Structure formats: C-alpha cells, structure tokens
Amino acid sequence: MSYSQFETLEQTFDAFDITSIEAVFFPDLTPIVPSDLLTLFLKRSVPIVSAASEKARSEGIIYPILLEVRELLQESISLFSGKDFSIDATVGLNGIVDFLICRSPSILVPTAPAIVLLEAKKGDIASGYGQCVAEMVAAVRFNARKNKGELPVYGSVTNG
What we know:
About 35% of the residues lie in helices and about 15% in strands. The chain has a four-stranded mixed beta sheet, sandwiched between helices. Helix 4 links the parallel strand 3 (about 115-120) and strand 4. The protein has helices at about 10-15, 35-50, 55-70, 130-145, and strands at about 80-85, 95-100, 115-120, 155-160.
C-alpha cells in the first residue's frame, strides 16, 4: 500500500473521514514576475517536455518554478523532489511524494512543518487528487508529531 493506492477523492475522503470545503484561498494575489533565468529556461524546456513523460515535465517545468519560489523566499523553505515521505504505512500513508516543501531552510531531511505537497501528472489531473490529499493527511500527521500541527497544509496537482 502507498499513496498511489488513493485513486479518487472519494476513496481518500472515506479512508480518513474527510469532508471538503471549496473556497477561494488566495484572492487578490499580486503576480510575481519570473526571473530572466526562469523565463529563458522555460522557453527552452516547455516545447520539449510538453509531450514528454511525467518525470520530464516534473524536471523541466515544475522543479525550476519551485526553485524560483525558494529563491524568492530567500531560501527560507526546503524543497524535496521524489522524496520518501512514509508516515504511517498501516493506513497507506507511505511512499514517494513528487514534491514536498517544508517551512525550514534545512535541505538534508524534511523538517516540520511540511506545508506544501505537489503531485505531478502527465495527463488526467483528477487522477492525482486522491493521492495528493492522502499526502496532505500524512503532512498533517508529520507536523503533529513534531508539535507543528496547527499550520495549514496545501496541496496541488499539476501537469506542468
């Protein structure tokens, strides 16, 4: 069993007794202008990886954007790609997460609080929702173990 076993939102909601509330979380955000370096990289990368594998999209689109976010935040967050984030295998909260961001500058191991999880999919984004929510449940449990349980955890599913 692993995060990938959670194939639908309904399955994940049932497994962890979750209900959803749909709302706009980030109203009126000010756009950030990407750096020239990121713009150039994406200009070269996107045409190549847009028809490629999930891994290629992750490396060629998502990871460079997340690195830019880390830079904009003056390296106050850590970024992990393809990290084992096994929290409770008895309920399927184990396995590799595509991307994990922690509110800590430590880059050696994930340090609480875990704040963002991103799931990369090549095609059908909806197929990643259940998996992403399960990863978010794991992050909440991880944070609680480290006495950082009151902070929100965000998740995203993207195809780049």
